[in-house]
Amino acid sequence: MREKLLILLSLTIIAINRVSSAHDTSFKIESVEQIHIHELFTLMIKPTLFNFSNSLSNEQIRYRPSLLGRPSLPSWMNFQFSKERNLGYLYGSATEKYANREIKIEIIALNKLTYETQRVVIPFRISFKPAPMNRIEMKITNYNWEHMTDMGRVKNLKGIFMELWPESYRDLSIVFMESAVRLGARLPLKPSNREGVIVHLGSNAQLSSRLIELDQEIKPLSKLSTCTFKRTKVQQIFQSAGFMIDWCAFKIITQDETSTMSEESTVQHESSMLTSKTWNGIAKDELPARNYSEELAVSIAIPAVIFSFVVALLTIILCFHHEKFEQPKSKEPVQMVQYSGTNKTPPTTTLKSLHDPYSDNLSLDSDSPSTNIFQEGSPKLNAYYRPNPPAYTGKITFQGPSTSTVRFDKDI
């Protein structure tokens, strides 16, 4: 029994080792990369660096760079993956804190289809370089960040400024470069348009007269955030090289401005250090307690008072309005009159009231259609009861055995 258990355990260990070896992360150390502080470096990350095929799509492979033994990259180093080129870019400009030091960047590549992983460690040796005395900041609107990683475009851009700034041909370099969208700019409305890229160039040489003249020309535009409508004297030089410049974002920072900015930041840092105090945590019993019953009562009482006031006000308004409509109106008796006399045309002066019994030319034994006239001793009738029509006298003549004609003459 023990022998069978030992055999089964050994087979399980062998199977686990085979599975782990099949998915084991290979390890490779690249050559040392030499970089300088205050100067941009760019490292292209290709699938071939991890022994992957270069034909893999950008949805199939994933990179995760970090400082060796740390969860993330240094604050001055960034990583971007270009879907357009199916390449990753590791870039940044080292700060003085990392001068004369060596760091190691670990990059893990994952093939999401086969779950195969590869691991590469790239060492960086950082050398000291003095900060440039004069800097030029600009925004190029017709390119994305990955387009400016081409050495040909970088060479053309430096060539333009060497023409405008001949004194900087010895140490002109790109100090900083980043996508405009990552720095807070809006994405273009059309996806086909470029996002734009922010580029900083620096040199220790003195500014040329052409740059000083250009600075005076664009200084009124510093209050605007963007202006692609502006044209300058050097516009043709940049356009001929394929660069569209946003002149509102074009700035020339001299040594005096740089020193002033650094002194202000140093003073603010020292003042914050002096005024800062050691923070001591508070106990749980010292935390303020929230009384929910009072808040619930207030939240119910205030709307209830307002609702009662509104209901009372509407009730008073409706009551007064209703009483005004129900006030009794004085009823005056309506007296009906008719013309008196035997004239067929109505008189203009003599009227006879219907309050008196109508007895002229009337007889109780007449052939009138109705005999409902007012008589004394009869039940009390309405004083305004409609009077009986006048009497009619009729003459009946017969004109044959089958036809008869009835003729009535009004007796008025």
Q: Care to describe what's here?
A:
It comes from Chironomus riparius. Keywords: Membrane, Signal, Transmembrane, Transmembrane helix. With 412 residues, the chain is an alpha+beta fold. Helices cover 26% and strands 25% of the residues. It contains 6 helices and 16 strands. The chain has helices at residues 2-22, 151-164, 209-218, 235-240, 255-275, 292-325, and strands spanning 26-29, 33-36, 40-45, 61-67, 77-82, 87-93, 101-111, 116-127, 134-140, 173-179, 197-203, 251-253, 337-339, 351-353, 392-398, 404-410. Strands 1, 2, 4, 7 and 8 form a 5-stranded mixed beta sheet that branches. A hairpin with a 5-residue loop joins strand 15 (392-398) and strand 16 (404-410). It starts with a helix and ends with a strand.
For the structure shown, list the relevant keywords.
single chain, 25% strand, alpha+beta, 16 strands, 412 residues, 6 helices, five-stranded mixed beta sheet
> What's the assembly state of these chains?
single chain
Helix content: 25-40%
**Rg over alpha carbons:** 54 Å
**Total beta strands:** 16
The separation of the N and C termini measures 147 Å
Q: What proportion strand? A: 15-25%
Low-confidence stretches: 18-24, 350-356, 358-374
Supply the number of helical segments: 6
Which class of secondary structure composition applies to the elements? alpha+beta
The shape, in one word, is extended
For the biggest sheet, the summary is:
5 strands, mixed
Mean residue pLDDT? 76
H/E series: HEEEEEEEEEHEEHHEHHEEEE
Domain Sarcoglycan alpha/epsilon second: 134-253
Keywords: Membrane, Signal, Transmembrane, Transmembrane helix
Pfam family, one: Sarcoglycan_2
Signal peptide: 1-22
